[in-house]
Amino acid sequence: MQLIADQQFLDQIHEIRDKIFRITKRILVSQEEAEDATQEVIVKLWSLGTEKRKSFKSMEAYSVTIAKNHCLDRLKSKQAQVLSFDDSIAVQKTVSMQKEIEVKDELRWVSNLIDQLPERERMIIQLREIEHYDFNQIATILEIPEGTVRVYLSRIRKKLKTQFLEIQNHGL
Amino acid sequence: MDSKKTKLLLEKYLEGETSLIEEKDLRHYFKSTEKIPNEWEGYRLFFGYYEQAKNESFPRVEVKRKSFFQPWMAAAAVIAIVISVQFYYATSNVLPSNQEAQLAFTQFKTNMEKVSSLLNKGAEKVAYLDYWNETTNKLIK
Q1: HSE of B120 in the Cβ direction (CA atoms, 13 Å)?
Q2: What is the pLDDT of residues A69-95, one digit of tens each?
Q3: Which domain holds residue A73?
Q4: What ipTM is given for this predicted complex?
Q5: Which of A50, A155, B50, B88 is least enclosed by beta carbons within 10 angstroms?
């Protein structure tokens, strides 16, 4: 019995692992940290036990919620450690962004632009634009009302549009 | 989807009012339409990015089941074969012929006989010691 349950878990994880990885990477930005976070999230899911896992309506939504919380915790502890470095990091990013524009690596450039949004906005982009979750799911995962998700999303889309136009007008 | 409908959808999109299906249509439009109005260039860029971002997957390779034969074993086996073949040829040339062996053996034998006769001479000398022991024993008694 246990073996069958294990296999089930592995199959489920196989399906959602990439998704968890993409979401953790969107929040944490760093590739290595996202890899570690993904592993840790899977361990967390596993340690819940078969019974608990079966009780969830959607294992996927639950996993993504766990991933989100895990990453936000990571960010919090990181920010506490390197608070004074925040400014220098921001400067570095804009410099590398300029470089990206020079080489006209469009996708990298978009990715950089998104990386500089606050993590909640990054998360909403990931969940809606990339993973294509509906508003109800996003609201559950982020633990905010559906209406708020729409408001956020609209704000982000407009923001990205103006940012793009600004750069376009200043000559790419 | 024509550009008129796209324009309406984009307005809805900015307000966060589009459904997932409508957003799919938008992605499709920007992916498949060659000539788009210049002011929509940004959308093309972002939708293009979202599309490729979805394909990213977890990079760590799963642990393969361990087989008894490791890749390095093949290399080790080849090296071992080469060395043993070389060793075989090298030693087979040096191996003495039957005659030489006979000669060496007789030489060795005579040498050993000499050594043993000398050894016996020494032993004769040592025989005195027994005599010595006997006399001392007598004296002690």
Answers
A1: 5
A2: 999 999 888 776 654 444 444 445 555
A3: 1-81
A4: 0.78
A5: B88
